[in-house]
Amino acid sequence: KKADEAIRDHVVEMNNARYNRVRQAAKYLVSKFPKNGKVMTQCYAETILGMMLLECREQGNNIKLFCPETRPYFQGAKFTSTVCYQMGFDTTLITDNMPAFVMAKEKIDVFTCAADAISCDGYVFNKVGTSQIAICANHFNIPVYVSGAPDIGHPTFDTVTIEMRDPSFSLQAMGVRTAIEGIKGYYPAFDMTPPELITGIVTNKGIFEPTKLNDYFKDNQPYELTV
Known about the structure:
The chain is built from 5 helices and 12 strands. The chain is of the alpha/beta class.
């Protein structure tokens, strides 16, 4: 076999393995959704979002989705909500300061997101705004499920650095300045959600309690959250 064909086959095999892992995680996640329930997201990652929706569709679970816009890049508006709608689900876009009101008014059943990093001591790092939504979810007794695997390179939360981006982006919306000259901006790209606000970390091996993530590395047996 030619070298280029071998490389191509290897890449396809690795990609399919990743898809299979994500699909398994999606099965665990969807098992926590009530039938035709209301799900709030936060700047959801593309693969797990698609697999979650595919799993819902195949199970006949017609969830309704509420997606915050996630300023200043508006990924929730441009990407997450688009994927949800185009896959055939009832999708509502809300602004970043609406989650608490929407949770109470619309009776949200589950809050779920992915993560840019998960430290082994159970802290989740995701698009800024995730932490405040998790706080609101806890106030309203709404379960919080985060999809992703713990990062063995981050044994504790203090090994993760929050990226600070160009503060000028907080002074505009889609290229249109919204603040007068002289006002300073502030733009942390991510925030940290502590384990006490998280119901479970959803992985390809099962759903783990945030304080027991080291179990993820022990073996390949499924671990199912009992709460």
